[in-house]
Amino acid sequence: MTRAKTAPAKAARVKADILIQSRRWDRLARAKSIIRRALDAAAEGSKTTSAEVTVVLTHDKAIRELNHQFRGFDKATNVLSFPSAAPDGHIGDIVIAYETMAREAKDDAKTLGHHLSHMAVHGFLHLVGHDHENPREANKMEALEKRVLATLGIADPYADTDVVKAKKSSRKSR
Which CATH class is domain 14-172? Predict the structure, then answer.
């Protein structure tokens, strides 16, 4: 009897501690596995050989407080990244808010899982030095996000956004 050869399991590039601080995340039972897969893809796409991150899955109230405290914006946001200068391999923390992420996914006709993947990739890329403070940086980061998400079988997260918003806007103006 011959055995079929299987490819060895790919070693994770990212060690992630994922903390759930809101029961709302129970609505997406696969959240941790989605995040782990997205982080590994982001590491590979950004040519990061290994990293440790902490991901906090929280709610709008908590992320609003963080956004206000650290960025001066008194509003909830989808994802925040906090880079670390620690020499131990921990590159930082990513915080994702359920309500904002879920609302965006619904508004843009995306699945929660796909949008969560995008937020994890986006947050990770910030931790490894990418940004979108000016158009050149934004285009570079967005292109990398698209490439990484494509490896996960996720369509361009920016492509349909304008189309969906335009349709909603035209419906409202009727």
Answer: alpha beta
